[in-house]
From TrEMBL:
It comes from the Eukaryota. GO terms for molecular function: acyltransferase activity. Signal peptide: none annotated. It comes from Spongospora subterranea. Pfam families: Thiolase_C_1. PANTHER family: ACETYL-COA C-ACETYLTRANSFERASE, LIPID-TRANSFER PROTEIN, PUTATIVE-RELATED. Residues 162-298 form the Thiolase C-terminal domain. InterPro entries: Thiolase-like, Thiolase_C_2. This is Thiolase C-terminal domain-containing protein.
Length: 301
């Protein structure tokens, strides 16, 4: 892309228009697990396998997984474009139909039709268009890593199959920043275990304690007399994430980028994090197969 002054990054998909049966058939078809050890629906079962391992290895509780869905539904209620308009209760999530041993229906990314677009531009392009560069959002750094294509049997899972932490470390080191320098986190949350693993990977919680971090944020939210400050308690996925904003298959990682830009430019209205200067966004591909992390900054960061 050398010599380009502006690049449009566009993604879109339409999966809620499909019948449930057709969607599951296509999703299963995309899962080419050579061991054929994942039952249908194979993608939820793949993530669920990791959730079971996390529970056995670190003691992550079933309720902590469900709390991710509750937190995201609360966030989504404040975004006018989110699919989820009503906050879920912990009981509703735990009592929703089971999809896999440790995953229920309300813990799956919410199917959606949608699209997203982001324009990356040079300073010269902005100046030519009369756009103040000190009011724009800059890409400070990025990191990529890959792990196991599919999760192995539970007894063979180890920390070595995951790649988000490696990608985050690369991004932090390039930016010469750490987790305490980040004001907003856009973390991929197709299933609760993905969010919990991401929380640990980016440094919000120590390894194995992501579930405890979620439980603490959930309890603080429940103890609060108002939910107006939820973004201050839990500065993660203020749009509601894949679990509640909506997930058009190919587009939700861009939704996280757009929400980060919205936060950094002070346009998040009742979701706004005060004085947000830097954001970290994380996208996940496959079943923990690949990870991409970017750190963004507001103007002069």
């Amino acid at each position: 892309m050398e010599g380009r002054r502006a690049v449009a990054v566009v993604a879109g998909d339409a999966v809620s228009s499909l019948t449930k049966e057709e969607f599951l058939k296509r999703a299963d078809r995309s899962c080419q697990d050579p061991s054929k050890s994942l039952p249908s629906p194979c993608i939820p079962h793949g993530y669920d396998r990791v959730a079971q391992w996390q529970s056995l290895t670190y003691g992550t509780k079933r309720e902590q997984l469900a709390m991710c869905s509750v937190l995201m539904s609360e966030m989504a209620c404040r975004h006018k474009f989110a699919l989820t308009k009503k906050a879920r209760t912990l009981e509703e999530v735990l009592q929703s139909p089971p999809v896999a041993p440790m995953t229920n229906l309300l813990e799956c990314a919410r199917r959606a039709d949608g699209a997203a677009a982001v324009i990356l531009a040079s300073n010269a392009f902005l100046e030519k268009g009369g756009i103040p560069t000190n009011q724009s959002v800059v890409v400070i750094s990025g990191g990529e890593a890959s792990g196991s294509l599919y999760p192995p049997p539970i007894e063979d899972i180890s920390e070595h199959i995951f790649s988000c932490q490696q990608a985050a470390v690369i991004a932090y080191e390039k930016a010469q920043l750490g987790v305490n320098d980040i004001d907003y986190f856009g973390l991929y949350d197709c299933f609760p275990i993905c969010m919990i693993r991401a929380i640990e990977a980016v440094g919000l919680a120590p390894l194995g304690q992501g579930g405890d971090y979620i439980e603490d944020k959930y309890n603080r939210m429940m103890e609060s007399t108002t939910r107006d400050n939820l973004q201050d308690i839990f500065p993660v996925n203020t749009h509601g994430g894949l679990l509640s904003f909506g997930a058009p298959w190919e587009a939700p990682a861009l939704y996280s980028v757009i929400e980060a830009i919205t936060q950094l430019t002070g346009q998040a209205a009742n979701r706004q994090i005060r004085n947000a200067k830097r954001a970290l966004v994380y996208g996940n591909g496959g079943i923990f197969s690949s990870s991409a992390v970017a750190i963004l900054g507001r103007g002069i960061y």
